[in-house]
Amino acid sequence: MQCANMLLRKIVRSSVLPFAAQHGMKKDLFPLSRTLSLSLSLKQEKSCEPSEKLDLDEWKKVMKSGLQEDVSETVSEPKELSSLAAARETLEMWRLAGRAVPENISEEQLKTFMECPSKSAKKKYLKYLHLRELHKKNDKRKMDEKRERRLEAQDQASNTDETKKSSFICVWSSTMDKAYNWRAAQSMIFGQPLVFDMSYEKEMSLREVTNTVRQIVMSESCNRRSVDPFHIHFCNFKDDSLYHREFIKNYREAWGKLLITVTDKCYTEIFPKDKLIYLTADSPKVMKTFDHDKIYIVGSMVDKSIKTGVSLARAKRLGLETAALPLEKYLLWSTGAKNLTLDQMMNILLTLKDTADWKKALEFVPKRKYCGFVNKPVKELKKTLDLMKTLKLRKGREEVEKQFAKNHPKKFKLK
């Protein structure tokens, strides 16, 4: 290739250049020589391909357009960066001014902020980002607190496990378990029956069934540790149901060793109807005393998810007697529904069975639902409160004072 170029140059210098100098064609000859050299070289390299002419003007145009695009890109990028930097500076100024501005903001959020049509829209968008950031911080703080509590509980459990390793505590726990099992076995023969109605599976979701089973497990453990436990019956219980699967998850291998009666029959087929009492919060009849000869039925369901009156309608359909706990008689109710969890019902019934004291039994009601215990019925208390209001308003003062004197001759005296 180099030898061919050298020969071409010698030929051009020896023959062509003198001729061109004589006729004044030196300037126009160099492009011709360049095209000739290129064509020769191309023919030597690619002899099989046809020769192509190079259009230098078109090539220059293409190169210039590419340079202009590169320059425009390099110019546009600093403009965009400068606008983003200006937006960040405005955000810093607003933050120093005390406005609701998020601490961390991404480039996409900055672009949406810049695209807002008005200043009020920008303020609303920044307020939204600020509130969302606060919610994320609160959620993270709550998760950290839960993690710390869980770690503390694990540490305490590990400490208790270490204490359980001692021989005396192991012997004590095993003997107490034997005593509890002996009481539960005796209750299956001599104890008072307590029925859990397991016929509400279709009216609950899977999550509600799991909550119900968890409450029943807690009720069974409270009953097994009591002095005089009930003989628990699971009636209308079907194999391979949601209840059955959840009980197996909770008890595992101990499910077949529980000292309870599980049957798919209805309680009306096992016990006489005149002894059955269905406990429901919707019953118009209030339970006054605990009857040791009766058999109480508790619906195995979560009351929050079911419409009111479902258990009452079921009891009426079966022709059973119903009763409700006297919550309004002994408690000054504040807020919330008068439905209790299954483990709370179990603790109340066990306390009534052992002591027959409503005040001790109703201590298992959550304290957030009532203001306190009342010595007198709530109806009389409401009457006295109404009379006090009328006295303050000075409406019918003489009649009210006479009525007060009749109702409370010792505490209130007429002036």
Automatic annotation (TrEMBL):
Enzyme category, top tier: transferase
Source species, domain of life: Eukaryota
Region (Disordered): 137-159
Intracellular or extracellular location(s): Mitochondrion
Keyword Transit peptide attached: yes
InterPro entries with a match to the protein in the record: MT_TRM10-typ, MT_TRM10-typ_sf, Trm10_C_MTase_dom, tRNA_m1G_MeTrfase_euk
Protein name: tRNA methyltransferase 10 homolog C
Species in which this protein is naturally found: Hippolais icterina (icterine warbler)
